[in-house]
Hints:
Strand content: 15-25%
Radius of gyration: 24 Å
CATH class of the largest domain: Alpha Beta
Number of strands: 9
Number of domains: 2
CATH architecture of the largest domain: 3-Layer(aba) Sandwich
Order of helices and strands: HHEHEHEHEHEHEEEEHHH
Low-confidence stretches: 1-12
Number of helices: 10
Helix content: 25-40%
Distance between the termini: 88 Å
Amino acid sequence: MEYALVTKPSQETAQPAPSIPQNGLLIVKTANQTIKDAIAQPIPQKLYGDLWFEGETAILFADTNLGKSIMAVQIADGITRGRRGGVTGSEANSQPVLYLDYELSDKQFEKRYSAEYEQHYLWDSKFLRVKINPFFVDFEDFEKQMFKEIEAILEETGCKILIVDNVTYLKMQSTESGKEAMSLMKQLTHLKHKFSLSLLVLAHTPKRQHLSSPLTLNDLAGSKQLSNFADSIFCVGKSHQDSTIRYVKQLKARSCPVEEEVYLFRLEKNHNFLGFTFEGMDVEYVHLKPADIVKSELTEKVIETKKEYPDWSLQQIADKVGVKHKMTVQRILDKNPP
Length: 338
């Protein structure tokens, strides 16, 4: 025999919620009203597998020349085409994407997506690429003008997908400081809420000190401030096993569990499209460079730099080889005197 569970209405459901003004900074409502409001909203769809969902602010970061821009362009292409299927497919319908490209010139972009400047890849017309006007010279109010024009383009096009490549170019100062990162993300978050955007921001990592260690949020420049604004964070690492293999690691997610394994991709040029081909899932540690090799390579760099620049200070050598502390250089030279 089955019994229905009958519960007595709580005091909250039995009585009307208090009337609280909602025109200030904070909004107060009951948990039941929160659920009711949420039911009226559409369920967020996947834009890039479990790595980025509609309505989210996602951050993609990697070291230089690992292919984060290539991945972002491929993500944009998939969204504009409504490309479904696979672990990185989109569930959303085909829609326009506004891609702010502060990295590549038109000719560099052409080279990546053509067969030696011929037989060019044909994009969906909903892929909208924005670049800096080279004739613009009024850099005194560069940042203010930048966001003003981004907002105008969003209003004109009605785009709900915004990709920023990369975050450094929106600031005249370095975004490695927490203060600058915070200011930048506040402005991007303002745009997100005003236009109901799904936002993907590309960022970089300072030169990594321990290539044998797993990638973490600490490898993101301005990590603490940037990560606080993000719903999702994923990064690209290079495999020690094969120079063409990249792995993507999920570090933060609010719409799904964080995947323990990493996604493996092969970076390759397929006729006229430079992109990532999914290879499977794996564990990160097998793709990290062994600690003894990292130590040996660093020692060699320090010795060679000292020979080439004998008058340099320890800190200058440290900066050249990519370590933070001059005492690391001192210890290596003590063990390997010239």
